């Protein structure tokens, strides 16, 4: 490995450790480093993936055991890097050594945001995926222009490339960008898409539906319906607001559970009630009882969490 590559790897490893700290707040500095040179993002994601894979192999569970999520070690003081490097990073460099061969194979990998905690993925080609709490997306390291939303909700801010359009897959459905920022949410019986900038094609082909800013679709087992949305509210969950427009109460409960990191269920008698509301989520994880007045429900606590029922 050339000296320049060694220095770049050291920088990338340092950012991997620092951004893994829950107290990390130098996002402007991180973004500036990522955007300073295209090789920065490429090496950051390659090393991060290699380390995750290497640590996973080191901690492979015994037969019959349940594998626990592997969190990146947090850095709270500069000297901690050395101790961590002596463990997980050092073991993972064996994986990095063979990275050039490894990267030639299809390499899908999953990125998950824990319930109650959002997460941002910076792709080497310039796009960003912002995952809402409790969400899961799958990406291929060889082709970051294809992402699959497996669970939850994500905001996609796409670096447009007419020759290589960005594609989001939700089950059998494909969404293709036409220069775009858009939000996608998987629901219990389908999906919701809302566009804030540019345009998106829903299920490209003879029956494609093109959505532009302020438009979206709701797809359920019963079919696909165009909707009008407030473009300024698309992805408002990133700012601590959940916006609902004619959404069933079950969807509201699911979104609240993912966002707050607590279990909120809905009683059968109001499961299909439609909701039009914007909910500020600050403080609700500690005390969700204000939802009673906001949604005209009764909040009851149990050992499993909370249940919303009719008044």
UniProtKB/TrEMBL annotation:
- GO MF annotation: an example: sigma factor antagonist activity
Residue limits of the FecR protein domain?
A: 111-200
Query: Which Gene3D superfamilies does the UniProt entry name for this protein?
Result: 2.60.120.1440, 3.55.50.30
Q: Which residues form the signal peptide?
A: none
| Pfam families attached to this UniProt entry | FecR (PF04773)
Protein known as: FecR family protein
Native organism: Sphingomonas aerolata
State the taxonomy lineage. Answer: Bacteria, Pseudomonadati, Pseudomonadota, Alphaproteobacteria, Sphingomonadales
């Amino acid at each position: 490995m050339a000296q320049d590559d060694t220095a770049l790897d050291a920088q990338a490893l340092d950012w991997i450790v620092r951004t893994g700290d829950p107290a990390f707040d130098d996002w402007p500095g991180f973004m500036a480093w990522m955007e300073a040179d295209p090789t920065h993002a490429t090496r950051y994601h390659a090393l991060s993936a290699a380390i995750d894979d290497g640590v996973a192999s080191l901690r492979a569970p015994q037969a019959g055991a349940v594998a626990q999520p592997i969190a990146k070690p947090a850095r709270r003081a500069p000297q901690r890097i050395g101790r961590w490097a002596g463990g997980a990073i050092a073991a993972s460099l064996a994986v990095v050594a063979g990275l050039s061969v490894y990267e030639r194979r299809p390499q899908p990998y999953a990125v998950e945001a824990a319930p109650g905690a959002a997460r941002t993925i910076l792709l080497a080609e310039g796009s960003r995926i912002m995952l809402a709490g409790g969400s899961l997306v799958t990406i291929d390291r060889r082709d970051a222009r294809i992402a699959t939303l497996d669970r939850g909700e994500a905001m996609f801010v796409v670096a447009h490339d007419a020759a290589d359009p960005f594609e989001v897959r939700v089950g059998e459905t494909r969404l293709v960008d036409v220069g775009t920022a858009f939000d996608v949410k998987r629901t219990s019986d389908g999906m919701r898409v809302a566009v804030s900038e540019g345009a998106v094609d829903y299920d490209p082909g003879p029956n494609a539906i093109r959505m532009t800013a302020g438009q979206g679709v709701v797809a359920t087992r019963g079919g696909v319906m165009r909707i009008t949305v407030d473009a300024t509210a698309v992805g408002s969950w990133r700012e601590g607001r959940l916006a609902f427009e004619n959404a069933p109460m079950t969807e509201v409960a699911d979104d609240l559970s993912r966002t707050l990191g607590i279990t909120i269920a809905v009683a059968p008698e109001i499961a299909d009630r439609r909701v039009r509301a914007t909910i500020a989520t600050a403080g609700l994880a500690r005390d969700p009882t204000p939802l009673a007045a906001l949604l005209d429900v009764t909040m009851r606590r149990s050992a499993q969490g909370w249940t919303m029922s009719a008044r």
